[in-house]
């Protein structure tokens, strides 16, 4: 499909992410040159910078700053990225072709011919956060637990999934597998990215003056991107504004932002009321809080096979971090596990393979830090509400 855009010619190639025929199509288009003149002066690919690095730099994981991942609470995004990698590994094992092989071929041929490579897709972390924001908390929990199960699954990919991959998008197929309602995921995974990639193409052409661009996109995005490029609005006026809007992560609602502070206020109020009734009652409430909250967080860390000292840190930290919504138990326990068991170069090198098996997740020190963060956080969250109901019930019973 060839379109005229801002005086340039854009050839949109719709590909299947698991098809050798798509690789052959890319090679044919980028080698069909007359004389020394390349058929295109730029190649756009359906990748963001982080996915581009993962595709072209297998050692990228070796340089991951785990302390920054824990401190900035990007553990869930990293875990979801590993889920995607594990799913792709299942495809590679079953069909003998890596998803994204056509993108890799386009990048390689562009570099060989000295053509610029345009990364036009939205950052995967932003896409995942916007997808999560589009779901209610229960659906979000179901999706996340499904992703964890998918990372550990060794089942063959079904024919239905393969057909979706041939006609659609690898991200949508991966995450829709675990969603109760695919419509909730369609907007952030497909429609928004159609708009984003169209805006990025227009932005690059206007800024760099490219005359002939080959855009290698998944088949599921072909028509959507074409419709956006040929529409008079909204991309024609200001593609930068479209990109900025689609890069923004919606903040949580006022209710969800206020809820942790409301819980803290209630817990502290119950403690104060208990001590006004009697010191004995007050200290019983405190001990209930510490034992339940700290105990469940420590249990989560123990299930993740954390270092014994990390388990003690979880027990001590969770009752305090639960009273400070700006810091989580997972941040403290994850950092403790990192200091006590620093991952080796071999752990980073084996992460992709280890993340596809249950035993590997617990054996690899990198993935185990992620588990410690997630399970200690989950234990503390459950403990906050269990202990909260417990101490409120104790106060009411003492009246």
Description:
By secondary structure, this protein is α/β, with parallel strands linked by helices. The protein has helices at 20-31, 49-56, 66-71, 75-95, 101-112, 124-133, 137-152, 159-167, 170-176, 183-208, 219-230, 239-247, 254-277, 279-303, 308-321, 329-340, 345-349, 351-354, 358-363, 365-398, and strands at residues 2-5, 8-15, 42-45, 117-119, 212-218. It has a five-stranded mixed beta sheet, with helices on both faces. Strand 1 and strand 2 (8-15) form a beta hairpin. Helix 13 (254-277) packs across helix 14. The longest helix is centred in the C-terminal third of the chain and has 34 residues, at 365-398.
Strand content: 5-15%
Helix content: 55-70%
Tell me the distance between the termini: 75 Å
User: What is the general shape?
Assistant: elongated
The pLDDT mean sits at 80
Number of strands: 5
Order of helices and strands: EEHEHHHHEHHHHHEHHHHHHHHHH
Poorly predicted segments: none
Number of helical regions: 20
Structural class: alpha/beta
Rounded Rg: 25 Å
Strand order across the largest sheet: 1-2-5-3-4
Question: How many strands, what sense, and barrel or not for the largest sheet?
Answer: 5 strands, mixed
Q: What is the fold's blueprint, element by element?
A:
Blueprint: E1 2-5, E2 8-15, H1 20-31, E3 42-45, H2 49-56, H3 66-71, H4 75-95, H5 101-112, E4 117-119, H6 124-133, H7 137-152, H8 159-167, H9 170-176, H10 183-208, E5 212-218, H11 219-230, H12 239-247, H13 254-277, H14 279-303, H15 308-321, H16 329-340, H17 345-349, H18 351-354, H19 358-363, H20 365-398
Parallel strand pairs: 2-5, 3-4, 3-5
Antiparallel strand pairs: 1-2
Helix pairs in contact: 1-5, 4-6, 4-7, 4-20, 6-10, 9-10, 10-11, 10-12, 13-14, 13-20, 14-15, 14-20, 15-16, 16-20
């Amino acid at each position: 499909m060839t379109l005229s855009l801002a005086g340039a010619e854009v050839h949109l190639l719709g590909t299947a992410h698991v098809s050798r025929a798509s690789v052959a199509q890319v090679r044919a288009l980028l080698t069909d040159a007359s004389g020394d003149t390349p058929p295109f002066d730029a190649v756009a690919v359906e990748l963001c910078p982080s996915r581009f690095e993962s595709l072209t730099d297998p050692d990228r994981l070796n340089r991951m700053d785990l302390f920054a991942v824990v401190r900035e609470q990007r553990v869930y995004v990293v875990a979801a990225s590993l889920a995607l990698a594990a799913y792709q590994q299942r495809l590679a094992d079953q069909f003998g072709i890596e998803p994204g092989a056509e993108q890799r071929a386009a990048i390689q041929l562009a570099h060989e011919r000295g053509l610029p490579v345009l990364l036009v897709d939205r950052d995967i972390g932003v896409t995942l956060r916007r997808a999560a924001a589009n779901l209610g908390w229960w659906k979000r929990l179901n999706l996340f637990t499904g992703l964890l199960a998918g990372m550990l699954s060794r089942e063959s990919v079904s024919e239905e999934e393969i057909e979706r991959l041939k006609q659609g998008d690898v991200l949508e197929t991966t995450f829709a597998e675990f969603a109760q309602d695919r419509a909730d995921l369609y907007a952030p995974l497909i429609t928004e990215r159609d708009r984003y990639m169209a805006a990025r193409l227009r932005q690059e052409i206007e800024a760099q003056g490219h005359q002939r661009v080959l855009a290698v996109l998944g088949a599921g995005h072909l028509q959507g991107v074409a419709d956006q490029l040929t529409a008079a609005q909204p991309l024609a006026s200001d593609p930068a504004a479209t990109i900025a809007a689609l890069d923004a992560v919606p903040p949580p609602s006022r209710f969800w932002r206020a809820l942790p502070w409301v819980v803290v206020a209630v817990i502290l109020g119950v403690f104060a009321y208990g001590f006004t009734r009697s010191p004995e009652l007050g200290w019983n409430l405190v001990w209930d809080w510490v034992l339940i909250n700290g105990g469940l967080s420590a249990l989560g860390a123990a299930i993740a096979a954390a270092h014994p000292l990390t388990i003690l840190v979880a027990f001590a930290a969770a009752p305090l971090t639960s009273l400070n919504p700006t810091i989580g138990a997972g941040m403290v326990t994850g950092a403790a596990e990192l200091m006590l068991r620093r991952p080796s170069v071999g752990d980073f090198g084996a992460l992709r393979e280890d993340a596809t098996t249950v035993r590997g997740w617990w054996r690899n020190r990198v993935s185990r830090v992620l588990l410690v963060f997630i399970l200690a956080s989950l234990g503390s969250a459950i403990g906050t509400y269990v202990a909260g109901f417990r101490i409120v019930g104790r106060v009411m019973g003492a009246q």
